[in-house]
Amino acid sequence: MKRVYLDNNATTMTSLEAAKEMVRFNSINYGNPSSLHNFGLDTRPELRKAMDRIYALINAADEDDVLITSGATEANNHVIKSVFYANTDTSTPLSVRKNHYITTNLEHPTVYNTFQYLEKLGAKVTVLPSDNNGLISAEQVKKALTDQTVLVSIMLANNEIGTILPIKEITKLCHANGILIHTDATQAIGKFPVDVQDLGVDYLSFSAHKFHGPKGIGGLYVRKGKRLEPLFHGGEQMASLRAGTLNVPGIVGMGVAAQEAVASLEYEATEVKRLRDKLENFILKNIPDTFLNGDKVKRTPNTLNIAFKDCEGEALLWDLNEHGIAASTGSACASEELESSRILRALGIDKALSHMAVRFSLSRYTTEEEIDYVISVLPGIIKRLREVSLGR
User: Fold this and answer.
1) What residues act catalytically?
2) What structural domains does the chain harbor?
3) 342 vs 336: CA distance, rounded Å
4) Which of 16, 181, 278, 296 could serve as a FRET partner for 126 with CA atoms 20 to 30 Å apart?
C-alpha cells in the first residue's frame, strides 16, 4: 500500500540535511554556547551561521531581534501577554496605558484563546468577523480602532483554508495611528516570501516544523525599539528576553531548513501549486456536490480545503488512512460531542456541511505520482461513504 502524506499544514518532515546537522550538534558539537571552554566556544560560529539564515528567512535587519522560542505557541503568547502586562504595569503612567486589542475569528487557538484568557483579566478585545471567503479587510480594522487600541494581532495565512490576509495594508493603518501590530506567520513561512521589512510589522511568529525544520523550536521577530517583557525569567540568554539554555541542535536544524525554504519558494509557487490545483480541479470536475472552502486565489499554494456533501469528514479521513493517505479535518472530538471547525463556521458554512470538510496540504516533497494515487482512489471512497450515509 502506498503512503501519501497530505497533512503538511499540521507538520512537515524534517529535511534530511537539517536532521543530519542536528545529529552532529547533539552528539559531537554538544557544548553549551554560554560556556567559556572550547566545547562551548566551538558551537558559536555554527550558531551564528544558523541565526544569520533565520534572519535571512524573514529579511530581518541586524538591529532587529529574533528570539528563539519553543515554537509559535510560545511566541504568540509571549508578544500578546507582554503587551498586555506592559499596559497594566503600575509603573507605567496611567495616562499612556491602553487596554483594547483587535484580532479575528480566523486566528489559530494560540492567539484566539490567549485573547480569551486576557479578557478574564480585564482586556477589551474586538474579534473581527471574516467574509465568506475567509478574508479580513483593512477597512474592518480601521472601523474597530479606538483611542485605547494598543495591539492588532492578525495572522498572515490561515492554517485550515490557506487564505492570505492583507497584513501590509493593515500595518500601515496601525502605524498611522500609533498602534502595534503582530502577525502569526506560521503557515506562511516557506510557502511564499515573508519579508518583515516589506510587511512593516512590529512582531512576527513562526515555527520551524511547518517548513521542514525540527519540532519544538520557532521564533519571534521583534522590530528594533519595540518593547517586549520576558515571558520566562532566568538567565541572560536572548538579551534576557527568553531565559533558558539555547537549543543549539534545534537552532542549527531550523537554520538549515530556513535556507532550504528560501531556495524553494519558486518551486512552491509553481510546482506545489500545480499539484494542488490538479487535485482540486479533478475533485470539483469529477466528484459531484463538492465545495471549495476559502478564497480560490488569495491562499497559500499548497492548501486545499474541500467539503464533500453527504460524506462525514471523520469517516473520510478514516477511509483515506486505510488507503495510506494522510489528510485532516477541522473537526475535533471534544468529550462526547463532535464540534465543527470554528474557522469554517466563521465563513458562514452550514454546520452539517462543515463536518464534511477535509484539508489536503502539500509540500515540496509531494510528488505527482502521489497526487495521481489520491485521484485514483478518492472517487470510490466518496461513492461508498455516500451510499452508507444515504442508506443505499
Assistant:
1) 333
2) 4-11+265-389 (3.90.1150.10), 16-263 (3.40.640.10)
3) 17
4) 296
Check if the beta carbon of residue 77 is closer than 8 Å to that of residue 112: no
Task: Name the grid cell of 1.
Answer: 500500500
Listed in sequence order, the residues at least 6 apart from 59 whose beta carbon sits closer than 8 Å to its beta carbon are: 194, 195, 196, 197, 198
Residues with Cβ < 8 Å from 147, sequence gap 6 or more?
A: none
Q: What is the pLDDT of residues 219-243, one digit of tens each?
A: 999 999 998 888 777 766 776 677 6
339 pairs with which residues across the strands?
A: 332
Q: Which three three-digit cell numbers place residue 76?
A: 504568540
Q: Which three cell numbers stand for residue 314?
A: 471523520
Does an H or E element contain 352, and which?
A: helix 351-354
Total residue count of the chain as it appears in this document: 392
Write down the pTM of the prediction: 0.94
CA distance 17 to 21: 6
Of residues 193, 366, 238, the one with CA closest to residue 230:
238
Rounded Cα–Cα distance for residues 92 and 86 (Å): 7
